[in-house]
Amino acid sequence: MIPTGSRLLIGAAVLATVAAVLYGITQEGSLGTIGLSAAALALALVAGVNLYTRDVDVSAMDTDAIPESAAARPAPQPSLCPLGAATGATLVVVGLITFPVIFVFGIIALLATTVEWMVQAWSERASADSAYNASLRGRLAHPLEFPILGALAVGTVIYSFSRIMLFLSKTGGPAVFVVIAVLILLGAFLFAYRPTLRGGAIAAVMAIAALGLVTGGIVAALEGERETHAHETTGDLAADGECDVAEETEADDNASQNVAAKANVTAEILLRSDGTLVARNEGLNGDQAMVIVTRNTPTNVLFENQSDEERRLVLDLGTRAEVDEETGDTVPDTGVPNQVCTTLVEDGGSQFLSFSISLPSELAESPYRFVVPGVDGAELEVVVP
Amino acid sequence: VRIVSTVSRVPRRLRSVAVLAAGAAGVLILAGCASDAPQDTWQPAGDNAQKIQNLQWPVFAIAGVVLVLVAAAVAYAVYRFRDRGQPIPKQTHGKPIVEIGMTILPAVILIGIAIPTVGTIVALAKTDDTECVVNVTGNQWWWEVDYPAQEGCGGVPTPIVTSGQMVIPIETNVLVRGTSRDVIHSWWIPRLNGKKDMVPGRVHNVRLEADEPGIYAGQCTEFCGLSHANMRMEVVALTPEDFETWKANQLAAYTPPEEGTLAAEGEATFITQCSRCHQVDGLVDAEGVPQIAQPELYVWSGAAPNLTNLMTRNTFAGASFDLLTEDCREQVWDAPPDVFGARYLEGVTEECLNAVNLREWLRNAPEKKPMYTDPEDLSETDNKTRGMPYLALSEDQIDQLVAYLLERK
Fold first, then answer.
1. Yes or no, beta carbons of A358 and B175 under 8 Å apart
2. How confident is the model at residue B265 (pLDDT cuts 50, 70, 90)?
3. Under a CB-based contact definition with an 8 Å cutoff, are residues A96 and A103 in contact?
């Protein structure tokens, strides 16, 4: 006779196989088919092991259970699993015709409650001893339940915190969290120095705190994030061909502080205090009046502003070519400057400039060059062999 | 009788295993003794590699002594205290003298190794004594080598671009500045220095110096895709005089083939079939329009080897295949230092051309070297190939191209 547990596993394996076939036929992509096929194989393997060892045939091992008739066994415990499974199934159906996210939640609820239900039902029939059955259920379910519930709790706390932080103003956020941190610290001290405090009281405080946190998180999520100031980047300037403008462009001031990157640039471009622009290449002695860049290669240079004013480095690549969307023809000269530039760099500061040049200098309509807007004569030829 | 036979079978099996293990170890040890090992890290051929050698020998010796001592102690303990049914001895916890000693001794050994190691690292990172700068750029699966205009290297008035083989003058501190166009590669000429990763967007330096003229082989040592194993490179060291000759040849103006020759037909074929990716400096079409390759339109890395002076090199396709026949190759590779330069500078002559290799490559490159060039498998690379595609050239076209390329030196 095939034991009950094995029957369940065999059924699940068949179900997974059918699902894999259906998924493979009806859905694009192979990931789902692979996953379901793997599940089918795994279930078949476990079913085989079960059949071979007959370890799910509890009555074969549990001598106390043998003389017990089914009628003598206690009635099953009340369970919320049917409600959960029904809710999950409903969400699946609703999700199929509304939003995918509901479908996903439905699948999760359906799977979780079905598994829980199966384990519970199986453990309740394991023996006539309710306590033993409960411990059997715990041995099987706890290794799964505890990590998952723990991860969910941690995820909820983190998500709630993040929503609240993003909702609060830039100055208010730190203040609120300093207060919360102080409260947590005080609470911890209180609990540590008053061991006579009732466990129930501590649990109540923790529950209220958790409830407050989650409620705050939900409210903050519904209210949305605070307004974030939109930064105009050098990429925006380059796209508009406006690298010559004198206004400051915001960027990460620390972007060029990466030691490893600083040590590995193609060249350092120095704007001297006398307004001259020179290049320094490791290995080549002295200042260079030209930068040689390998074609089609991601290239970084480090601009150092040694002048007394804020300046930016601009790589002038002529004018931009564009493809006419209507005709599909390439318009070689749109009149829009083809530039790459740094932000305004304070005196004594430095910043990276990253670029790649695809056409050799020989094909360029005008010579490639580095320039510094506002400084006459600050020019450096760029040669692409 | 059964018991006796069982007992005697075990040692016999153990003996077989021991003999096999000893044989395998012997083969490994013998492999390390190969004299013809162009990528042997234990045969330094320049100042930088010698610095590494001076470090690795004592470290190896110390590590060897530690290994022998530890292995002997373990073997003694295993044998001396093996289970013979004796009672378990009294267990004790802690032995301060031994614990302190076993902490101090490794610390002293590590400090002793660290001091020369740091010194060697600093010495190998020096760049202020550079006498010649050469750039290398990794691509799937070949190395581009270019010499920026500089006063070093005896003076380079305009950039020189080549591939596969890097030519340097002997007894000169060369600074290799390396990067990559696509994925991370690693540049390593074992007899001249250690390896260095070449990373897109970054420039990493390697010092090179060769004491004697010759060819020093290496290969990419960072897995970089399908043909990683076929991504090789060579450094060719020449005397300063020979290096000047080589340089002058690289900078010489383009010489078109004589009209009416097979090579002239090859030039036309090259323009229609090859020049969209491969640059030949000075090449113009029938209307006199300069032919500038635009590999960025067809190749994922955005580059293909410059073939201006192909036949001054000994190898092609990422230094994977010889351009010389086996006999001619041996004459160059095994040449004594005093005649090496002259033989290398001869380049590839008609008699020495390994036409089989070159024709096979032109006939179907992806068959000769695995590359991603199947048109149906290029969706992830914007329909650009990684490597040279199959061009469906006719045998006549191959003849023409071979004749044309043979003059590229």
1. no
2. very high
3. yes
Q: Would you say the pTM of this structure is higher than 0.80?
A: no
DSSP, res A99: -
- For residue B132, give the nearest of B72, B185, B176 by alpha carbon: B176
- Alpha carbon B80 to chain centroid distance? 50
Cβ within 8 Å, pair A294-B177: no
d(CA B392, nearest CA chain A) in Å: 28
> In a mutagenesis test of the A interface, which of B177, B182, B184 is the best target, namely the one with the most A β-carbons within 10 Å?
B177
User: Across the interface, which of B130, B146, B202 has its CB nearest the CB of A283?
Assistant: B130
Mean pLDDT of B375-404: 94
**pLDDT per position as a tens digit, A304-358:** 999 999 899 999 998 887 777 777 777 767 778 888 888 888 888 888 888 899 8
Contact A375, A311 (CB under 8 A): yes
Helix (H) or strand (E) holding A382: strand A379-383
Helix axes A81-97, A100-124, angle to 10 degrees: 160
The answer to whether A327 touches A358, Cβ cutoff 8 Å, is no
Per-residue CA distances from B203 to A264, A316, B32, B166, B178 (Å): 5, 23, 34, 17, 5
Q: What is the pLDDT of residue B368?
A: 95
CB count within 10 Å of CB A14 equals 14
Confidence of residue B3 (pLDDT cuts 50, 70, 90): very low
